[in-house]
Amino acid sequence: MTNTMAKLIDGRAIAEKVYVDLRREIAELKAKGVTPGLAVILVGDNPASRAYVRSKDKMCRELGLHSVKLELQASTTQAELLGRVEELNRDPGIHGILVQSPPPEHIDEAAIVRALDPRKDVDGFHPANVAKLVLEDSSGFVPCTPLGVQRLLLESDIDINGAHVVVLGRSMIVGKPLALLLMQKNKNGNATVTVVHSHSRELANITRSADIIIAAIGRAEFLKADHVREGVVVIDVGINRVEDQASERGYRLVGDVAFDEVSKKASAITPVPGGVGPMTIAMLMANTVKAARQSL
Ligand code: NAP
C-alpha cells in the first residue's frame, strides 16, 4: 500500500469556476433584455429545506438573477399549490421553477412535477426531461446533483471515457440519472456503468473493480477502505448527520464514504462538506440560465 493521501477535489473552487462562466452568459442575456428568473416554492417549515431555499435565493441574488421565493404554509392544499405552479408557468419573467422536496405528506409530489412546464423544470424531474436524458437530447434538463458530479470529474481531468464507474444508489434524484448521464454516447460520457443498491450481492467485489466510485446511498461512512482498490477516484454525494458532542450543534455532517481510510487508497476524492454540495447549487443556476437562453 502506498499510503499517500488522495488529491482533494474542491467543489467550492470548481463551483466558482462555473460562476465565472455563468456571469458572462448572464451579462449577454441581460444585454438582450432577458434576466434569468428562478422561482423556488417551499411548502411547510422543514428546517433543512428552509436552509436550502435560502442558499438558492442568495446565490441567485449574487449572480444578479431574478429570484422569487414562495414560502407557503404546511396546510397549503394540492389545488392551491397547483395554482401557484400554473401562475409561474405563465410568468414570462420566470424561466426556472423548483418545488423544494420533500413537501408535506398530503401533497402528491409527482403530480406537482408533472404540472410544471418542462421548459422551466430546472430540477430535471418532469417525465419529458427524464425522457430527454434517456434519448440524449441535450435540450432537456438533467438533475442538478448528477450534472454537478459529472462537472467535478471533467474539471478535475478525470477520464470518464471508457472508465468503469460504480454508482451506489438508484434514486431518481441522484443514482439513476447519474448512471444515464455517464453512459451517454459522447466524450463527457462513454463510461461502463454499474449501479448497485440495497439488493445487490457481492457489493465489495463490484466496488473493488471500479475506476470511479460515486456514493449516493445516505448511509454515514458506509464505503470503507476494503471496498476500494488503490488509485480509485471517489465522489461522495452523501450528506449524513452523526452525533458529535464536541460540536456546538451536537452533530456533524459526514458523507457516505469513510473519508480518513478511503482517502489513503484513492487517487482523488471529494470532501463532505465542500465537494458535491456546492456543485448542486451551481448546476441549478446553470440550468436556470440555460432555460432563459432557450426561451429566446
Ligand atoms: P435515497 O432516495 O434514499 O436512495 C438511496 C439509494 O441507496 C437507494 O437506491 C437504496 O437502495 C440505496 N442503498 C441504501 N442503503 C444501501 C446499502 N446499504 N447498500 C447499497 N445500496 C443502498 O437517497 P438520495 O436522495 O439518492 O440521496 C443519497 C444521499 O445523497 C443522501 O445522503 C442525501 O442526503 C445525499 N444528497 C446530496 C446531495 C448534494 O447536493 N450533495 C443531493 C442529493 C442527495 P434501494 O433502491 O434498494 O432502496
Instruction: Return the average pLDDT rounded to an integer.
Output: 97
Strands ordered across the widest β-sheet? 1-11-8-7-5-6
Helical proportion, percent range: 25-40%
Q: Helices and strands, in N-to-C order? A: EHEHEHEHHHEHEHEEEEHEH
Distance between the termini: 55 Å
What bound compounds does this protein have? NADP nicotinamide-adenine-dinucleotide phosphate
Give the tally of β-strands: 11
Total number of helices: 10
Radius of gyration: 19 Å
The backbone outline, from C-alpha atoms, is globular
Sequence stretches where pLDDT stays below 50 over 5 or more residues: none
Indicate the proportion of strand residues. 15-25%
Major β-sheet, in short? 6 strands, parallel
Main structural class: alpha/beta
